C-alpha cells in the first residue's frame, strides 16, 4: 500500500458500549505533520499509526535525493566555449556573432530533422562524424578506432583482443572508464559527454523531513531536489545516474535499438532514447470521442491497472518525483513526457489509442454537470463518507484497491476560457508556466480525492486534464513571434528525472513525441447515421425500467443501492443524475432540450411548440391564431426576416437554423454529427476562434458572470513543492492571483435568461453563458468584447447614392452606424455620399441626429457614436439648452460662488446662479389688522400684539 500517507483520517466504525477509543496518529497532508485522533478500535484505513514515531517515520521523513553540477562554472548542455549543440551561446549568438533566427533542431532528441525541417526516417545514435567518417574520439561508424583498429570492448574486426588487462570484459577499468575515457553514463573525467557538452551531476542523498528536503532547493547554488521518498532511507533507494539509457523502466546500452509499441527506438550516446514516429497520436476532446473509442480507452486502462500494479506505480512515480514534476520550469515539459510515457503503455494494445484531453473550461461555470462525470465517461463524485467512487468505467467487474477517491469542491472557482486566453498572451515562459501550474492546481483541488493528493495520476481524469494543459502549452508555443522555443536557455538541456529527457527533447510535440491535438468538435466524425432520438438504454430497457414490450427489468443486476455494474439505476440514470445519452432526471440535456427536441419553454429548434405554433401565434401552415395582430407580426419580419436574421420558420437566408443546420440536419460542411447536440460545444468552438484572435485589451472588456478565480491554499503549495524559495515562487503566485482578480470584471447584476421566448415573442434558444462564465451576446451579431448598444434608426429615409437598390443596415456593436449591402450578394457596398432624413451629405460631413449623438458621413455610411462628456470635479452641475454634456457652474463677481444667497437689504434677496446674480423683492403678506408697525431691519409690517 503505497498511498498510506495520502488517505483521509477515518476514526473507525466501532459504536458498541465496550469500545473504548484509543489515541492514534495519522498523517495530515494539509499540515504536513502527524496528528493524533481518537480511533474507535476497528475499521478505518492504513493512515493509522499507534505511535507518533511510527507515523513520522512512515510519512514525514524519507530519502531526499538532490544533485548539483560537477563543475559550477559550466552550464549543462554547453561545450567548453559556451555553445550548445545547435551552435549558439546563452545570448543566442553563434560563433560568428550572428543571432539565432529560427528553431532548426539539426539533432533534437527523439525526432531527427533534415535541413528543410522535415522528419526523416533514419535514427542516429547521437555521435557526430567528420568527413573521414570518424567521431570526436577517433572511432568510425562501426565503432573501431582509426589508429588501433580496436573497439571500446577491445576487439578488432578479425575478433582479436588488444589484451589490455586494465579493462574488464564490459570494457571499463577500475575507475569505471572505457578506452575512450567515458564512463557507463557516457561522461568523461571533465564532465563532458560524447558530443563534447557538459553533462555531469553529483548526486547526494540525505534522510530528512520533507520540509528540510524542500529547503535544499537553491537556485543560486544550482542545487535541485530530484526526488523525495517518505518512509524510505538512503540505503533503500538509488540516487545516482544509471548507465546507458533508461526507458519505460528498462535499461539499454549505448547504440542499442529496440521496438517499443508503435515506435522503433535507439539509445543514443548522449543517454537519450530516440524514437521514430511511425504513427502520430491524435488526441481528441473527450466529448468528440465516439462511444466505441471511449470504451476501448477505458478498457486499456482497466488492463493496465491489472498488470502487476503498473497503474499504481505511475501514481507513485509522480509522487516521488514531485520536486521534478512541479516548479516553474519543469512543470510543463515533465508532464508532457509523462503523458507520452503512459500513452506508450496504452498503445501496446493498439497504436490507434490516444489519451483524450478534457477541455474543462467548456464547463467552467457548471463543472458538476460536466459530461466527464457521467458513469460511462470518467465516473461521478465520491461517496460522502469514504470519498470512494462507487461506479466508474475503469473497474467494471474488478474493484480498484485502493478505491478511486473524489471529493468535488464546488467552492473552488475555476478559470474560464477568457482567463486562459489572457495567460496564453504572456510572452515570458516563467510567467506562463507558473500560471499554468496554478490553474492546474485549482482543477486538482476542485476534483479532490486522489487528485488533491500526491498520487493524483491514480485518477484517470489526471491524464485528460494534463493533456488539456499540454494542449495549451502547444498553443502558447505556436504563438512564438520568432518561432523560437521560449524557454530559459540555462535549463533547456537539463535532463529531468526519472526520464533522463531534457525539455529540448520535447519542444515540438508532433515531431519529437509523435502527438498532436485535434481542436474541439473537429475530432468528431462528420456524419452520424443514427439520428433517430435515443429512447431505450443500450441493453434494451427504457429509462423507467421497461423493455420495448413494456416488461419490467427483473434480471437482478442491481446492487443494494440500486445501481448496476455500469453505474446506472433501474431508470437508466447514474449517481450524477444523467443517463447514458446525456439526458438528466428532468429529461433535459445540457443544452436544455428534451429527448423530443423541445426546450423548457416548450419550443423546438425552429420556434414551434408541440401544437406547432410559434410564440407570436403563427401555425405551421403560416396561418395565425385569432387574437394575433398580423400587422404587428409582419413588422417584426421586415423583408421576411426578423432582427436576428431568421424567418418565421426559424431559418436564415441560407436555410440554416439557429444552430447552423438545415431542415435535413446538415451544416454548411454537409455534416450532421452535432445536429442533436451538444450545441454548447459548437458555441465554444466559434467563441474560441474569436478569443484566440482578440487582443488582451479586448479580452479585459468582457465581463464575467462567475466569481473571480480562487487563490491556491498554502498547503497545496507546500505539498506540490511550490513553496520552496526558488525565485520567490510563492510571491510570484500571489502576484499572479492578484492580477487574475484585477483582470476579472465581475457583473454582479447579471440576471440569467430562464426562457427562450423574448419580449417581442420571438424565439431564440438560451445560450450557454452560465456554463462559459461570460455573456456571449450571440444573436446580437457583435464580437466578444464589443457590447451591443441601442441605436436610433439611421436607415430611416436614407438612400445609397450610386447604389439605389442597396439595403441599409444599422450596426450597433460598440457604436452606431449604418452600412449598405447589395441585396443579391449581401456584400458591403460603398456609397458616394449619404442621404439622411431627406438631406444629402458629402463624405466627411457631420450629420445632426440629436445633441447627444455625434454622426459623420463616411463612404456612404452614417457612423454615429455617443458624445463623450468629460468628468467634472465640481459640486453640482448645470446643463445649457442645446448642449448634451453638463458643465461646472460659473461663479459671480465680488467673490460670490454658484449657490450663494444673501440679502441686499431688508426688502431684496439675491442669489448667484451659474455666473449670474439674480435679485428679487420680498413679497409681504396682506394684514387685516388696523394696528400695524414695521420692526427695525425688517421689510414687512406686522400687527401689534
From TrEMBL:
Superkingdom of this protein's organism: Eukaryota
Molecular function, one GO term: serine-type endopeptidase inhibitor activity
Domain VWFC: 832-889, 886-944
Key words, A-Z: Copper, Disulfide bond, Melanin biosynthesis, Metal-binding
Ranges of residues in domain BPTI/Kunitz inhibitor: 5-59
InterPro entries membership: Di-copper_centre_dom_sf, Kunitz_BPTI, Kunitz_BPTI_sf, Prtase_inh_Kunz-CS, Tyrosinase/Hemocyanin, Tyrosinase_Cu-bd, VWF_dom
GO biological process: melanin biosynthetic process
One Pfam family of this chain: VWC
Membrane topology label: Single-pass type I membrane protein
Compartments (UniProt record): Melanosome membrane
Family listed: Belongs to the tyrosinase family.
Name by which UniProt lists this protein: BPTI/Kunitz inhibitor domain-containing protein
Source species: Scyliorhinus torazame
The organism's taxonomic lineage, starting at the top: Eukaryota, Metazoa, Chordata, Craniata, Vertebrata
